[in-house]
Structures are given as structure tokens and as C-alpha cells.
Amino acid sequence: MIVADQSEVLDFLSRPETFGAAEVRRIDTHISAVFLAGTKAYKLKRAVIFPYLDFGTLERRREFCEAEVAVNRRTAPEIYERVAAITKEADGRLAFDGKGAALDFVVVMKRFDESGLFDRLAEAGRLTDDLLSRLADEVARFHDAAERRFDAGGFEGMAKVVALNEGDLGRHAGTAFEAAAVRRVVAASRAALSRVRAVLEERQRAGFVRRCHGDLHLRNICLYRGQPLLFDAIEFSETLACIDVLYDLAFLLMDLEHRDLRALANLAFNRYLARSADGPANLPGLAALPLFLSCRAAVRAHVGADAALAQTDAGERARGAGEARAYLDLAARLGAAPPARLVAVGGLSGTGKSTLARRLAPDIAPVPGALVLRSDTIRKSLWGVEEFARLPEEAYGHETTERVYGAIRERAEAALAAGHSVIADAVHARPDERAALERISARLSVPFLGLWLEAPAAELERRVATRVPDASDATVAVLRRQLELPLGEIAWRRIDASGATAATLAAARAALESA
């Protein structure tokens, strides 16, 4: 709801002469108006009140402009410069930081190349595995350093989110949305909230609620000086910003899913969990991920419906309303998480286990696909080294290997118990290693599929000898020792991995469908 007339300020900011620029471009959302002029961007908060924010008074707009600069300097200090007052001078003209009374305030930002916005990159098909890996690393670093908030989030915080979604979706029920569709999404959210109450409360006690970004979708991420940069974090609501770190991550994952980029969502999900200092401790929280994803889609639905109403162009209004409905449909789908399953991928070095696991993971529900537990990366993390660093020979001794396989089993059990599917990617040469995974699936009553990849020794040697930098330290000598191992009876589904990756993947998918 608009509560004040800002037309004089909007007119001032729309004129090129205000900035000494050749032109001004204006971008409107339902809560702000951004003016791009020269090398700067000027963001005005609209005098609006919604259930989740209040910019209704001049003082509140000043306060939230200052808060916006403060919270965004955590991740984007190069972009967020200052808060400027728009004043009315004695001669009636408006000015920046003049001597007259303040009519409003703007956040002054450094402009960046908009083609580097991640939503633009997604639309252009330019989001790559490398970009998403670096983005996940950045999010993990940000969350690791974020202020812990034991007085926010948890069950009560998510209950407020669900209630806000109910009210905001309800405002559009019967217009932008079918009333029955809104009721279904809200009912599913409330049921899921009740199921994961204990999980949310435990995560709050354990410090997983932090002062996060709060609005971490692709439009609020840009490629700046070659690196992913997070900007436009929420400043106006403690409820929406002081949240579980997985709820923060869920916005990114949901947005990728909305854009049919499941493989990139799965990559970001796995990379984040591997790089976060919280790592394995986060896995029980996956029980709440379907709720988090669904709520994020619901947020985009009602925000999109509000934004559509703010458009003056009929075509843009219709397009925005259609996208809002697509988000509501996604909220319903994400809230209905299917049962978890355990898939093990085994085989000697060079069979392509990790490539298969990475390609197969997005196919395995629930969204964003299976958690991949790779022995090579777990071994590196246990030794505290980077993924591509080579380990000494003692890192491959019996004791360390037992720790690695133990970690795979512990993490698999934690994720499966939380309702999330897992791919265990390791050689699994010993019968007892294979049997241990099968016992986990039996104990948790989740479906199990073991895939054993095999190829002629000469082909395996060729692959290992020509391998590009990888987390695996296996050499041809290591492979030759593996070829001498007594593998015992292999009851897992055997897959010929001697050909192209696509053929191996097709065979694995067929096995998955028939299991």
C-alpha cells in the first residue's frame, strides 16, 4: 500500500541534469525505484507498507537506507557507497545533501555491468559449473562468518514466514492465484512446519540461525571483477534476514530449479555442503529443506504478484502474473518431497565413478537431487587440504581409509534419516564396505541400488594416466594394486563403463528406473 506522494522526488531523480548525465534509466519494483545514471545507481525506497515491511515514514526510509548499506557491505563493500539525502533548498529546487529539509533518502551505489547479473547469465545460457562452484564457495564463506542469532529463526521464525506467505498469497487469491491453489500450498507448509519443529528448534540452539542475506536469488548476485558477488540483502526485516543458513541457501536452489537448471542447483547444493565449515553438522537439517524450498517459491509468487500490479504496461503485468503463478505451482511441487533412496557407485579407479555420480545426482529426488559423498574429497577434507592438493602415501593407509568410509556411512545415514537421497561414491572394493551400505538402507527402510562400474584394465590405465587435475590421487601404480585385490562376490548391478560417459549414464539411469 502506497502511503505518501513521492512524485516530486521521482521527477528529480528521473532528470539527466540532476546527475550531469546523458541519460537516466529507471527500474521499478514494488518496494523501490532505482535510477541508473553515469557510473552510479541511486535507490529510492517507495513509501509503501506491506505485511513484511514498513517504509511508510521518512524516518523509516532513512533508517532502512542506512541499514541497507551496512548489511550489504558484508559481501559487496565495493558497490555500496553511502546514503544521500534529497533536500529541498530555499529556492524550491531539490538537491543531494543540501542545506534544506530532507524530502527523502537514496542509497548510492556503484554501477556494475548488468549483463553479469546471474539471472541474465542464466537466461543467456552462460551459467557454468565453475561459476556455480565459486558462488557456492562464496555463500559458504559468508554463512561461516555471519553473526549467529539465538533469539531468531527456528520454529517460531519459520512459523512467521509461513504466516506471512499465507497472508500475502491470500491477498491475491481469486485474482492472480486460484484460491484453492493458495489453500493447498499453505496447508502443506503448515503440515511440514509441524513435522520439522524439533529439527528447527535444534538448529536454532546449535547456531545455524544467522544474520543471512535473506533474498539470495539469482537477480541479487552478479559477476563483479570476475567473481560472484552477493548484493541487495534484506535490511528491513529481522524475521526475513535472521534465518537458518539452509533457508538462505534454499532461495538460490529454488531459483535454479524454477529455471530448469537442476544440475546447477545440485552442484551448488553439494559444493556448499562440502565447503561450509558446518559440513556434516548441516545434514540433519535437510529434513527442513522441502519446507524451505517451498516457502521460497511461495515468497517469489506473492512478491511477483505484487510487482506485476505495479507495472503500467499491460504486457509486462500479464507476464509478471504468469510467472507468479508458475512460482506458486513450484511451491506446491517442492513441498511434496518423495522418499529418499541410497545409491552406491563403486568400481576401480578410472571407471568414471565420480563423473557418473555427479551426472546422476540431479535425477534423484528430492530437489535439488542427491547428496554426493565422494571418498576422494572427504579424504582431502579430513586431512585439511584443498581438493586438488596431492596427499602423501600415508593418507591412503588402512586407518585413514577406515575413517573415510566411516565418514561416508555416517553422513549417508544422517542425510537419509533426514529424508534426503544419497550417492556414495567410492571404490568399495571390499565386500564388508559394500555390505555396510546395504545395512544402512535396511535399517532406515530406504531403497538401495548398488552400481558397479567396470572396464578393461588397459582402458582404466589409459584414463588414469591421462586424467586432468582431480580430487583423486590415484596413479597407474595404485590402479594396478587395485586390480590385484580380492573383490569377492559383487551383487551390485554391473555396468559396462568402457565406452562414452553418455552410455554409462544411460545404463545407470535405466538401472535406477527399474530398481
Written description of the protein model:
The chain is α/β, with parallel strands linked by helices. The protein has 3 domains: 7-111, Phosphorylase Kinase, domain 1, CATH 3.30.200; 118-335, Alpha-Beta Complex (Aminoglycoside 3'-phosphotransferase, Chain: A, domain 2), CATH 3.90.1200.10; 342-514, Rossmann fold. The protein contains 20 helices and 17 strands. The protein has helices spanning 7-14, 16-19, 58-72, 118-123, 129-145, 154-170, 179-195, 197-205, 238-241, 245-258, 262-275, 289-310, 314-335, 353-360, 375-382, 398-417, 431-444, 457-465, 476-483, 501-514; strands spanning 25-28, 32-37, 40-45, 49-50, 53-54, 80-88, 94-96, 101-110, 209-211, 221-224, 227-230, 242-244, 342-346, 371-374, 422-425, 448-454, 493-496. The protein has a 6-stranded antiparallel beta sheet, sandwiched between helices. A 5-stranded parallel beta sheet has the order 14-15-13-16-17, with helices on both faces. Strand 6 (80-88) and strand 7 form a beta hairpin. Helix 12 packs antiparallel against helix 13. The longest helix is centred in the middle third of the chain and has 22 residues, at 289-310. It is elongated, with a radius of gyration of 26 Å. 43% of the residues are buried.
